[in-house]
Amino acid sequence: MMHNPGSRTATFVFAGVFLALSIWQLAVENIALTVDGLGILTAAGLTLALFSFLYDDNPLFKIAEHLYVGVAAAYGLALVWFQVILADLVNPIFFSTATIRQLWVLIVPSVLGILLIMRIVPKFSWLSRISFSYVVGFGAGISIPAYIASQLLEQVHPTLAPALGWDGGDKFILIAAMVLIAVAYVVSRRGGGDLGMNGWFGPTLLSVVFLICYFQGVGAASLVLVGVVAVLFYFFFSVEHTGAVGAISRVGIWFLMIAFGASFGFTVMARISLLIGRMQFLLGDWLHLLKS
Amino acid sequence: MIQKLLNIDRRWIFLFIFVGVAAAMLSPLPLPIRPSSDVKNVYNTIESIKGKPNATVLLSFDYGPGSEPELQPTAISIIRQCFRNNIKVVGMALWPDAVGLAQAAFDSVSRAEGKEYGKDWTFLGYKTGSVTLILNMGEDFHGAFNVDYRGNKTSEMPVTQHIAKLGSFDYVVTLAAGKTIDGVWVTYAVDRYRIKLGGATTAVTSPDMFPYLQSGQLNGLVSGLAGAAEYETLVRTQGSATRGMQPQSAAHLIIIISIIIGNTMYFVQRRRDRRQSVSGNEETRS
């Protein structure tokens, strides 16, 4: 890796910057040689080592990456051992006054857990199927009704309610959606099925719907119905996407594009937030350049 | 020139963003922060339970250090709001890496607001199981969390002894970096035990949460660093999220300018290529 000139530059520049600035902070006594001070220096060094990847892959980045994986795994293991296995299993079974009858709820799952681990022993791996069958049965039984109720049925009402006037909403959007479909159909018939949907028609149709909804004071929630119907049309592959179906599915594509754009915007915002968090640490806690 | 700009080394973009963010941090220019209705809903729900006897909020820390800049300020603000209104706070974690972060948030705010462990707040620590843990809490809270993180019995601590099950909490707020809001809390806690749930998420996951706001399964949402800054504005504190808004705006401006320049160059280049190919065709014909 060090044969790559970019890698060498990244290693020496980032290591040099870290050492020079850390020595300066120690010299001006902004950071003391205490546990807290060493913690700040370690965190700053590892942050710079990980940032060095932005220039090029290099040994500093690899060290920090592997260190992170090792520390995270060990931390998780220690936490689960003390907070779960020791607290909820070992102590109640071996160091409590509970009767055997009370301990059944711990013993049975523990045995099932041990059977799961048997998977790593080829001779007894078949035993793990007993536990898996329990996991699959319990998982399906508990999650299928819960998901249908919360992810599907609970979503149907708010999708339809504002548009259909169920909650005192406006029926206008339903009429708008019907007009949209009718216009798309008529235009498709006149144009012999070709609407030029890759060009102006899809976005124009969508913009008109948005503008009408806006000026009519119909809430954004009502647009959800149009979006859901149009996107469902796009993912309906049993019919050829021509004519009215093609027109509506094009509107669906525009809804999807806007959703992807919004999602990308939020992702950029999140990543910049993480950079800001690290920069606040580097410029504040490490270099003491920020006013508190 | 155009070709050079279109093939610019991406490290230049990183450098521009780094310089922009650093400059905005070193010479801050305060920008107005207006709380959105989703953030206000979380704030107002907590305000609405103050004065209620034994009012208790459950905070679930479902994130790791990777999401600390976005979610930790919200956690601190919510704890601060509860303590200022004498509302009890119970913390728990569905992510193992959240334990240290939760402890740091509780320790700093409880010290500043003079609140007592066990009486005004407690931290239950991390438990595995997610879904089964929530189901257990829904049926028997003391059974699910027999002891807190420090080993005290939850049935004996003043802060938790009146909590029989999940529904006993006046409000539940989950601070989540992954899919625990919709995959665990909404699906298993809200619909089954009819609890009032507020959420705080990273900006990446917040678009996925909007359907639950619309359906009322989530009554409010604090999304990303911007949401955290809005919450800090509501609790009248200037934390890291508020200070992060200026660099955030600077970085966004640089990205927007880059997108505009990139697209302009792309279209100019495309037009040139077309002209060249047309003139090339004409020359071949002649």
Protein architecture, described:
- The complex is a heterodimer of chains A (about 290) and B (about 290).
- By secondary structure, chain A is an all-alpha fold.
- Chain A is built from nine helices and no strands.
- Chain A has helices spanning about 5-25, 35-50, 60-95, 100-115, 130-165, 170-190, 200-215, 220-235, 245-285.
- In chain A, helix 1 runs antiparallel to helix 2, helix 7 packs across helix 9 and helix 8 crosses helix 9.
- Chain B has two domains: about 1-30 and about 245-285; about 35-235, Rossmann fold (3-Layer(aba) Sandwich), CATH 3.40.50.10160.
- Chain B has helices spanning about 1-5, 10-25, 35-50, 70-85, 100-115, 130-140, 140-145, 180-195, 205-215, 225-235, 240-285, and strands at about 55-60, 90-95, 120-125, 170-175, 195-200, 220-225.
- In chain B, helix 4 packs parallel to helix 5 (about 100-115).
- Chain B starts with a helix and ends with a helix.
- The model of chain B has no long low-confidence stretch (mean pLDDT about 95).
- The chains are: A mainly alpha (about 290), B alpha/beta (about 290).
- At the A-B interface, helix 3, helix 5 and helix 9 of A face helix 2, helix 4, helix 8, helix 9 and helix 10 of B.
Could you list some keywords that capture this structure?
heterodimer; A: 292 residues; mainly alpha; 77% helix; B: 286 residues; alpha/beta; Rossmann fold; elongated
